[in-house]
Specification:
Radius of gyration: 23 Å
CATH topology of the largest domain: Aldehyde Dehydrogenase, Chain A, domain 1
Helix content: 25-40%
Number of helices: 16
Structural class: alpha/beta
Number of strands: 24
CATH superfamily of the largest domain: Aldehyde Dehydrogenase, Chain A, domain 1
Distance between the termini: 72 Å
Strand order of the largest sheet: 14-17-18-13-12-20-21
Bound molecules: succinic acid
Length: 488
C-alpha cells in the first residue's frame, strides 16, 4: 500500500477510529477504508470501516444521550457551541492540513473552510437561546393556542466530501443547538476531518453520545440500519440529487423528516451594463472556489452579446493564469479533483461540448497523473441546452453562451430541474432585482460571486433540495412543532 508520507506528517494528529457513545473504536473486523490524497493518488490513511451493527450502536448511543442533552439548559448548550467555535478556530492549521490532504483543495480555501465551518457554531450558539414558540387566543375565544419547538430527537446525517468540515458543522451546530443528538456517516472519500472535528467537539464539552460518527464503505447497509432504527426521526443529507431521490424513497418507509441539500446547475448572467472587472472576479469565485467542486458553482454562463467577447477574454485570462497542483503548495489556486472518475466525467462533458461546436478558449483537457487534475477551462459558443449545460460539471470548466433577449435568457436559465443558486451582474439595481426574482433558485448572488453565509438560509428550489440550512430557519428544521390547546 503506497502512502503519502509528506501529507501524513503535515496533517499532524489524525483520528482514524469511529466514535460511538464517547468511545473511539477500531473496526471489529480490522477492515480499513483507504483515504486517498487526490493530489498524488496515494493512500494517505486507513480509517476504521463501520458495519451496520456499528451504525445501530451509534443510534443507540444517540438515543441514550438525547433526553439529557435536550434537558440541558439552552444557555449551557449555547456556551458549549461557542467553545466549539473557539476550539475549531484554534486548530485551523491542523484542520486545513487534513482538508487539503483528503480533499485536495488549495490551502487558502481549506483555511477559509475552517473559518466557515466554525462560524456555524458561533451563529447557532447565538440561536440556541432564541428558539421561540408563541401564544395566542383562539379565534373562538374558547382557549389559548400555545406552540413550542422541542428537538426532533435522534438525527442521522450523511455529509459530502467537498467540504469535509463545513458540511458537517452546518448540520451539526443547529441540530445540537436545538437539543438533538446525532449519528453521522462522514464521507467515504474524506472522513479524516470529520473525525477530528468530533474529537475537538468533545474537548469543547459536547457530552459522550451526543455526536456519534461511523465511517463506512457500504453506504446502503449503513442507511438501512439507521433508517430502520426506532429512535431515528430525521435524515439530513448533502449530496447529489440522484442519491437524494433514493434516500427520500427509503426515508418514506418510516416517514422520517428530511432536509436535503442536493445538486445545482447555476446560471451566471452578465448584462452589458455590468462592471466587467467585478463580473470577472465574481465569476472566478462563483466558478472556482474550492477548485470548482461546489454545488453552488456557476455551471452555465449567459453573457449579453455586446460584452460577450470581452468577458470571455477576461475570464479566459484569469482561468489560464491559475496554478494547478497539489493544494499544499501555497501558490496553487486550483487543486486536484476528488478522483479519476470525476476527471473522466468532466472530460466527457467538455468533449461533447466541443463536438457540438463549442471552442476551448483556454484549457480543455485532463492533466496526466499522478493525481486527478483538469485544466481550468473556458468554453465559448456553447449552445444553450447542450449536455454540459444540463449536468452538474463539478469541475473547473466555464461554458459560455451569448444572449440578446432577456426573456429568452431567463427561460433558458430556468430550463433545468435544479434550482439551487443563480448569479446576476448588472449596475442597474432595479433590473438586477427584477431578474433575480424571475430566476427559479433558492439563492441569488446579485453582483456577488459568493453567497454562502451561516447567517443566511442555504438551500434550493425544485430538485435542488428540501429545507434550509443556516440562518434562523436552519435551527427550526431540527425542531418539531407542538401545539397545545389550553384553557384555564
Ligand atoms: C456545497 O457545495 O455543498 C456547499 C457550498 C457552500 O456551502 O458554499
Amino acid at each position: 500500500m503506497a502512502r503519502s508520507d509528506r501529507s501524513i506528517c503535515d496533517a499532524g494528529a489524525m483520528q482514524t477510529q469511529m466514535l460511538i457513545g464517547g468511545d473511539w473504536r477500531g473496526a471489529a473486523s480490522g477492515e480499513l477504508i483507504d483515504v486517498l490524497d487526490p493530489a498524488t493518488g496515494d493512500v494517505a490513511a486507513g480509517v476504521a470501516a463501520g458495519t451496520p451493527a456499528d451504525a445501530v450502536a451509534a443510534c443507540d448511543a444517540a438515543a441514550a444521550a438525547q433526553p439529557g442533552w435536550a434537558a440541558t439548559a439552552p444557555r449551557v448548550r449555547s456556551e458549549i457551541l461557542r467553545d466549539s467555535h473557539r476550539i475549531l478556530i484554534e486548530h485551523t492549521d491542523e484542520l486545513a492540513d487534513l482538508i487539503t490532504l483528503e480533499n485536495g483543495k488549495p490551502r487558502a480555501d481549506a483555511v477559509g473552510e475552517v473559518a466557515y465551518a466554525a462560524e456555524f457554531f458561533r451563529w447557532n450558539a447565538e440561536e440556541a437561546v432564541r428558539i421561540h414558540g408563541s401564544i395566542s387566543v383562539a379565534p373562538s375565544g374558547a382557549n389559548r393556542i400555545i406552540t413550542r419547538h422541542p428537538p426532533v430527537g435522534v438525527v442521522a446525517m450523511i455529509t459530502p466530501w467537498n467540504f469535509p468540515a463545513a458540511m458537517i458543522t452546518r448540520k451539526l451546530a443547529p441540530a445540537l443547538a436545538a437539543g438533538n443528538t446525532v449519528a453521522i456517516k462522514p464521507p467515504r472519500e474524506a472522513p479524516l476531518t470529520s473525525l477530528r472535528v468530533a474529537e475537538l467537539l468533545a474537548e469543547a464539552g459536547v457530552p459522550p453520545g451526543v455526536v456519534n460518527l461511523v465511517p463506512t464503505a457500504n453506504s446502503g447497509a449503513w442507511l438501512d440500519a439507521v433508517v430502520d432504527h426506532r429512535a431515528v426521526r430525521m435524515l439530513s443529507f448533502t449530496g447529489s440529487t440522484e442519491v437524494g431521490r433514493v434516500l427520500l424513497k427509503r426515508c418514506a418507509d418510516r416517514v422520517l423528516k428530511v432536509v436535503m441539500e442536493l445538486g445545482g446547475n447555476a446560471p451566471f448572467v452578465v448584462f452589458a451594463d455590468a462592471d466587467l472587472e467585478a463580473a470577472t472576479s465574481g465569476a472566478m469565485v462563483a466558478k472556482m472556489r474550492h477548485s470548482a467542486e461546489t454545488c453552488t458553482a456557476a455551471n452555465r454562463f449567459f453573457v449579453e452579446a455586446p460584452v460577450h467577447d470581452e468577458f470571455v477574454e477576461r475570464l479566459a485570462t484569469e482561468m489560464g493564469a491559475m496554478k494547478v497542483g497539489n493544494g499544499s503548495d501555497p501558490d496553487v489556486t486550483c487543486g486536484p479533483m476528488i478522483n479519476g472518475a470525476s476527471v473522466q466525467n468532466i472530460d466527457r462533458l467538455v468533449r461533447s461540448a466541443v463536438d457540438g461546436g463549442a471552442t476551448a478558449v483556454t484549457g480543455g483537457a485532463a492533466i496526466d497523473g499522478p493525481g486527478f487534475f483538469y485544466e481550468p477551462t473556458v468554453l465559448g459558443g456553447v449552445e444553450p441546452g447542450a449536455p454540459i449545460t444540463r449536468e452538474e460539471i463539478f469541475g473547473p470548466v466555464a461554458p459560455i453562451s451569448s444572449f440578446t433577449d432577456t426573456d429568452a435568457m431567463i427561460a433558458a436559465a430556468n430550463d433545468t430541474e435544479m434550482g439551487l443558486i443563480g448569479y446576476v451582474y448588472t449596475q442597474d439595481l432595479a433590473k438586477g432585482l427584477a431578474v433575480s426574482e424571475r430566476i427559479e433558485a433558492g439563492m441569488i448572488g446579485l453582483n456577488r460571486g459568493a453567497v454562502s453565509d451561516p447567517a443566511a438560509p442555504f438551500g434550493g428550489m425544485k430538485q435542488s433540495g428540501l429545507g434550509r440550512e443556516g440562518a434562523s430557519e436552519g435551527i427550526y428544521e431540527f425542531c418539531e412543532t407542538q401545539y397545545i390547546a389550553a384553557e384555564w
